[in-house]
């Protein structure tokens, strides 16, 4: 394929996407396959979206003590999130200033007094300054006082740690103003000492990041993919039109939906026994799974028992790292005690693996199954996807 033809393909995709700005749920169909398979479109997303995206990489309770760290690769940038001796949480480069080795691997968690490179043991303080390097005394260009791991932009929003690759990024908090009051109430309750980090997730899936984010925006699939898991306490059939969609609009970066707890189901009843609900609890008037999406690829699930955070880190057009964690009132041995086998005590991992299995198959269909073009009509339970397409269009146009 010629370069000119490829460029035209990208222009066509952008024109198509622009058309989505006029649509609502009554006439929106799912995006054509090229949006999930085009390398060029993916490169544009990297440049225009992910080089300037606020992405959640954890909650401050996960970094309770100085020295607590977490390695994370954000759009190929290798970072370590670490709480310093001064109590501040920083997002530092995890690339050694000696000869580029990755100091903390993606997904690695732990605690240390210093950050040490595994290659030649250069050692850094928790704020990134070089602490020690051996056998450098004969090198005249070595000046320890000038060497540090660079820091990325980060912001803590109601307890959640976000990072951004753009040093000049617009601050996050004003962009989430519309949901700030709600999250402030939740943050105050999470800060009462009852909540602990209980479950982490770090998997790589062979699918485009947007498939996952769209999936995180609707409760329509609970009754399909999650028929034996999430759909029991939070069934699609009791999500009302009003519950299915809230947003600040296409100019905002947030949207969400509520899946009410089915108090008539055994699991719903048990959930209420464990975390007796009173109005106002976790900023809810009734017990819900409230899914709040933050563009481009972070989501939160808020329920009376806790808050989960979920972030998609695209590595290729058809490959996405999915990291997640949760802050819960419940002990992990209690959570998901209806589940046996490898997911015992890890109900979130089970649900996310269910999503990943089906989305990997969808990516295959998008890439190879060209006999079928989908009709693609969206249910009103998928209204947030219309907002997502508009948010994409706005960001890629800029
Ligand atoms: S590359 Fe890190 S100490 Fe050499
Ligand atoms: Fe799901």
How would you portray this structure in words?
The chain folds into two domains: 58-157, Rieske [2Fe-2S] iron-sulphur domain (Rieske Iron-sulfur Protein, 3-layer Sandwich); 172-397, Naphthalene 1,2-dioxygenase Alpha Subunit, Chain A, domain 1 (Alpha-Beta Complex), CATH 3.90.380.10. 25% of the residues lie in helices and 25% in strands. The protein has helices spanning 3-19, 34-37, 39-48, 177-190, 209-215, 266-274, 347-368, 383-397, and strands spanning 55-59, 68-74, 77-83, 89-93, 109-111, 115-116, 123-124, 130-132, 151-157, 160-164, 196-205, 246-247, 254-260, 288-294, 298-303, 306-316, 319-328. The protein has a seven-stranded antiparallel β-sheet with strand order 1-10-9-4-3-2-5, with no helix packed on it. Strands 11-17-16-15-14-13-12 form a seven-stranded antiparallel β-sheet. It has a three-stranded antiparallel β-sheet with strand order 6-7-8, with no helix packed on it. A hairpin with a 6-residue loop joins β6 and β7. It is globular, with a radius of gyration of 22 Å.
């Amino acid at each position: 394929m010629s370069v000119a033809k490829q460029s035209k393909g990208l222009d066509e995709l952008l024109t198509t996407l622009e058309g989505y700005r006029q649509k609502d749920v009554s006439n929106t169909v799912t995006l054509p396959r090229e949006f999930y398979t085009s390398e060029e479109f993916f490169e544009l997303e990297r440049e225009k979206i992910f080089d300037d995206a606020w992405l959640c990489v954890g909650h401050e309770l996960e970094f309770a003590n100085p020295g607590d760290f977490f390695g994370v690769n954000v759009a190929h940038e290798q970072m370590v999130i670490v709480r310093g001796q001064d109590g501040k949480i920083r997002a530092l480069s995890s690339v050694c200033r000696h000869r580029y080795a990755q100091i903390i691997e993606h997904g690695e968690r732990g605690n240390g007094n210093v950050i040490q490179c595994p290659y030649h043991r250069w050692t850094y303080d928790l704020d990134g300054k070089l602490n020690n390097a051996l056998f450098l005394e004969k090198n005249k260009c070595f000046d320890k006082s000038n060497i540090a791991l660079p820091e990325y932009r980060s912001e803590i929003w109601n307890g959640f740690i976000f990072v951004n690759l753009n040093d000049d990024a617009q601050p996050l908090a004003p962009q989430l103003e519309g949901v700030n009051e709600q999250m402030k109430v939740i943050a105050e309750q999470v800060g009462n000492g009852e909540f602990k980090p209980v479950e982490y997730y770090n998997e790589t899936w062979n699918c485009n990041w947007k498939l996952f984010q769209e999936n995180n925006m609707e409760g329509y699939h609970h009754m399909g993919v999650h028929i034996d898991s999430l759909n029991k306490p939070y069934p699609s059939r009791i999500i009302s039109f009003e519950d299915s969609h809230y947003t600040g609009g296409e100019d905002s970066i947030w949207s969400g939906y509520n899946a009410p707890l089915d108090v008539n189901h055994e699991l719903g009843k048990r959930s209420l026994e464990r975390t007796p609900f009173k109005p106002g609890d976790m900023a809810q008037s009734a017990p819900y799974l409230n899914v709040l999406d933050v563009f481009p690829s972070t989501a939160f699930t808020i329920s009376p028992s806790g808050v989960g955070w979920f972030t998609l880190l695209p590595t290729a057009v058809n490959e996405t790292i999915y990291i997640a964690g949760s802050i819960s009132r419940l002990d992990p041995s209690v959570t998901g005690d209806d589940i046996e086998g490898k997911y015992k005590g890890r109900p979130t991992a089970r649900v996310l693996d269910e999503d990943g299995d089906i989305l990997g198959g969808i990516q295959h269909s998008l890439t190879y199954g060209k006999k079928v073009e989908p009709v693609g009509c969206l249910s009103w339970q998928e209204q947030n996807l219309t907002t997502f397409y508009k948010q994409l269009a706005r960001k890629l146009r800029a």
